[in-house]
Amino acid sequence: MKKMNVGIIFGGKSAEHEVSLQSAKNIVDAIDKEKFEVVLIGIDKQGNWHINDQSSYLMHADNPKLIQLNKSNDAVAIVPGSSDHQLIHANSAEVLDQLDVVFPIVHGTLGEDGSLQGMLRLANLPFVGPSVLSSSICMDKDIAKIILQNAGINVAKGLVYTRTDIDNIRFEVVSETLGTPMFIKPANQGSSVGVSKVTTEEEFYEAIKLAFQFDHKVVIEENITGREIECSVLGNEEPIASLPGEILPKTEFYSYESKYIDEKGAELAAPADLSEEVVQKVQETAIAAFQALQCEGLARVDFFLTESGELYVNELNTLPGFTKISMYPRLWEISGISYTDLITKLIDLAVKRHKQDQELKSSIWE
After folding, report:
1. Is-contact 283 257, C-beta < 8 A?
2. Within 13 A of 118's CA, how many CA atoms are on the CB side?
3. Nearest residue to 166 via CA among 202, 217, 203
4. Looking at residue 354, what is its pLDDT?
5. Residue 37 phi, psi dihedral angles, 5° rounding
6. Model confidence over 295-338: pLDDT tens digits?
7. Percent of the chain at pLDDT above 90?
8. How far apart are CA 80 and CA 124, in angstroms?
9. Cα Rg for the chain, rounded, in angstroms?
10. Which domains does the chain have, with CATH numbers?
11. Which residue, 21, 25, 62, 60, is CA-closest to 44?
12. Residues 96, 87 contacting (CB under 8 angstroms)
């Protein structure tokens, strides 16, 4: 049987560039080599696309603090609207081998927010993960919370500010509404980039300043005291949920460093020590949130579980990390789907959705 050509797009012009490189490395190592041929496309921090050789696409690949994309001189361009050979060598205009599917593992801005997904749709290429609408919704914590609330799903109370409000953000007003401590977050970032837990006025204004370095909109949320529960969701029309896991941070909160750099920064109880009733509630709520936000393919749903049994959705991550300490694949492993099989299932879901999209009419005259 002929192998499928899988384009793995990684890196990106975002604060999560290094996380993406680690995710790509793990996917390349784990993908079923008997079914798939890998084509590596690395995006540098300036946004340039590079065709990379598998033997040297990363530098310092075993050290997440030093990992870098090895920039090739082989730039790539996309031809939108075509049904085949959508990628070409930018310098020579020669076509690349036809990609059968793309696995975009570009975390954060321009990779997870619908931008890359829109470009792949224009290029008529199947791709892993949610499409344009759900990707952009889930990336914006403000909009996602509004939709979840309308679906009857609990979320933390919060306030939203844009750059035009910056001179009017007052600690005394916010703390009176939300209490302390509170969390200050860029609305459109992931992996806890730019997130701060604050209690004092001094910390508050420093955190506001930090958050606005990463986005034009900032979300401030109440602190919910509870266990940090995560659940992985997989599927298109009929999604399934994994067994839940529990994050046990060793730091003040589950920060960027705890997730990707410091392997001792947090522990994962997998499965989480929960009653069957609570496990079912987590899984049902995870699927409900996945569907409310119109996700497809995959998402990791993050919860807070209070002592009284209240369950709050914190966020949905539509392209969760695939590093060796990432929660999404680990939760599926304890649920009976191996890392390699998970990658295969995600690719199959992408191809199936693309085929369904191609069957839709694009003109009333057809």
Report:
1. no
2. 9
3. 217
4. 95
5. -105, 130
6. 999 999 999 999 999 999 999 999 998 887 789 999 999 999 99
7. 75
8. 8
9. 21
10. 4-127 (3.40.50.20), 137-154+225-356 (3.30.470.20), 158-222 (3.30.1490.20)
11. 21
12. yes
Q: How much is the average pLDDT of 326-351? A: 96
Q: Give residue 41's pLDDT.
A: 95
- Residue 106 near residue 129 (C-beta atoms within 8 A): no
Token pair 């005259």 is found at 365
- Among 105, 102, 132, smallest CA distance to 17 is for 105
AA letter at 284: E
- Check residue 251 and give its pLDDT: 62
Given the DSSP bridges, would you call strands 196-198 and 217-222 parallel, antiparallel or unpaired?
unpaired
Residue 76's DSSP bridge partners are 89
- Residue 293 identity (one-letter amino acid): L
Structure-block tokens of residue 5? 């050509």
Token reading at 183 = 């969390």
Q: How confident is the model at residue 190 (pLDDT cuts 50, 70, 90)?
A: low
Q: How confident is the model at residue 257 (pLDDT cuts 50, 70, 90)?
A: low
pLDDT at residue 260 in the model: 47
What pairing do the DSSP bridges indicate for beta strands 227-235 and 4-11? unpaired
What pairing do the DSSP bridges indicate for beta strands 101-104 and 4-11?
Answer: parallel
Task: Examine the pLDDT at 350 and tell me if it is beyond 80.
Answer: yes
Whether the pLDDT of residue 208 is over 90: the answer is yes
In this structure, which long-range contacts are made by residues 67-75, counting pairs with CB atoms below 8 Å and at least 24 apart in sequence? 67/18, 67/21, 67/22, 68/21, 69/11, 69/17, 69/21, 69/42, 69/43, 69/44, 69/45, 70/42, 71/42, 71/44, 72/42, 74/50, 75/48, 75/49, 75/50, 75/51
